[in-house]
Amino acid sequence: MSAPRSLLALAVVGVTALQVVPTAALAKQTPPTPPTAVSQQTHPWRPTRLVDVRAAHRPGLDRIVFEFRGPLPTELSARYVGKLIADGSGRPVSLVGNAFLQVRLSPAQGIRTHQDAKQTYALPGVIQLARIGDFEGVVTYGVGLARRTPYRMYTLTHPNRVVIDIGTQYRTVNVRDYFLNMPRYRMGQRPYTTAVQRPAIPPATAYGALQRLFAGPTKAERTAGLRLVTSQATGFSKLTVRHGVARVYLTGDCDSRGSTYTVADQIFPTLKQFRSIRWVKIYDADGRTERPTGRTDSIPPSLEP
């Protein structure tokens, strides 16, 4: 089989004082805040170096860890915000999530060799994590979350770490997201899409699956060759399901750029995994789709090759 036309529209989606929001549930599952006098460990004119950022799930919570080479930062804060703003430029930062946590660490310097400014996670709470500032000794991260829940921030030593535990005491179910498999696509081997599992909070599992789709593959999945083809779409503003028809309203420019493989090839299987959905109609940002009525699939004219 001959290889398909080259992709012209591929876009890879990778992404103060200590504030504590205490909860009884988190207190039972995490160690108490160590009585470490962090103010004595460093000085404002000697920022410490952030060397690793990671996230993982633990029973009842998602844990984010910031590891440092050198002393702990003296000023730590984490708070929920309505939107994320990049330090220095003042530009809005787009992360996938229903709630956003802003984390500030100072004095500190970011990971100079870190290639991916935005990381996606297949965790119950943490969807995306991104560095949104490394400016004048202040490192700032944004976290996109599936739900706004209580969290706890504390420090650990040996090595020096700042830890944030985010509550995930809600039920999730596994859904599938379909991404382009680049090795198969280049060799012309169908199917071009590969399914991965993601947690979604019921009852809005179709919404959760589509939201996680636009967050893109995880780092390990990207290493395996999976990609999100956005076709210039930045996400979606609305999803409705009625009488077996799902209607997806995309945001952004939404342009195939002549490619035969588009974002629609990932949206269709992602939504049709649900029994309540038989047909999918995709609209562009101007509300256009080729077949708005009838029991058929539909894409906007801009996604035609």
Blueprint of the fold:
Blueprint: H1 24-29, E1 48-58, E2 61-69, E3 75-81, E4 84-85, E5 92-93, E6 99-106, E7 108-109, E8 118-120, E9 126-135, E10 138-145, E11 151-156, E12 160-167, E13 173-181, H2 182-187, E14 193-200, H3 205-215, H4 219-223, E15 226-227, E16 233-242, E17 245-252, H5 264-272, E18 279-283
Parallel strand pairs: 1-7, 17-18
Antiparallel strand pairs: 1-2, 2-12, 3-6, 4-5, 6-10, 8-9, 9-10, 11-12, 13-14, 13-15, 16-17
Helix pairs in contact: 3-5
Question: Can you offer a commentary on this structure?
Answer:
This protein is mainly beta. 12% of the residues lie in helices and 39% in strands. The protein is built from 5 helices and 18 strands. The protein has helices spanning 24-29, 182-187, 205-215, 219-223, 264-272, and strands at residues 48-58, 61-69, 75-81, 84-85, 92-93, 99-106, 108-109, 118-120, 126-135, 138-145, 151-156, 160-167, 173-181, 193-200, 226-227, 233-242, 245-252, 279-283. The strands form 5 sheets. A 5-stranded mixed beta sheet has the order 7-1-2-12-11. A 5-stranded antiparallel beta sheet has the order 3-6-10-9-8, with no helix packed on it. It has a 3-stranded antiparallel beta sheet with strand order 14-13-15. The two termini are 20 Å apart. The model is unreliable at 1-25 and 27-44 (pLDDT under 50).
